[in-house]
Amino acid sequence: MSAPRLKTNAELLAELAALPDGTSGEVIDGAAYVMGRPNLRHQTAEDEIVSLLKKGGPGGRGGAWVLASEVSVRFPTDEEVVPDVTGWRRERFADRFDENPIRPRPDWVCEILSDSTRLKDLGPKRRLYAQQGVPHLWLIDPNARVLEAFELVGSAWQLLGTWSESDTLSGLAPFPELKIKLADWWP
User: Fold this and answer.
1) The domain containing residue 90 runs over which residues?
2) Does a structural domain hold residue 94?
3) What sections of the chain are H helices per DSSP?
4) pLDDT tens digits, residue range 38-91?
5) What is the CATH number of the domain that holds 61?
6) Count of the separate structural domains present in the chain
7) Which end of the chain has fewer surrounding CB within 10 Å, N or C?
């Protein structure tokens, strides 16, 4: 008796394309993950981050960054993820606003941890971002009210810092011009 044949990333992506409305999926390292919509605590943090980045300059109209929430990103390995917030330097993004999924590697991703996605976000998804050369990763835990920021050095994540609760910070890569008040991110 032979072992069952594993599905290819392309086969897994085809299955995800057939998901019902209100669900989305990701393919990471030969495994498919299906998710529902985020809860209000998660969504509040996400909305505040996007608003800050767009008002603060880097992602504003004509700014140096293209920012998006909940868009599909496909890597050359046919692995596909839906980061909570994604950023590309405008000069690398060109005119890809009609692509779905978006294929250029992001320059920054932000994952907002929840009970249903925590293990995937901290494990296979974080490893995938490093393998694909994503330079910056922020992890936000809205329950613990914590932000951790990482920079890719070689093939490993280097922790830039951990901030919590009501900390105010500035100079954080890749948006050094922003002043961030974490208290605004929590409902």
Assistant:
1) 38-185
2) yes
3) 9-17, 40-55, 90-93, 118-120, 126-131
4) 777 778 888 888 888 887 666 555 578 889 898 999 999 999 999 999 999 988
5) 3.90.1570.10
6) 1
7) N
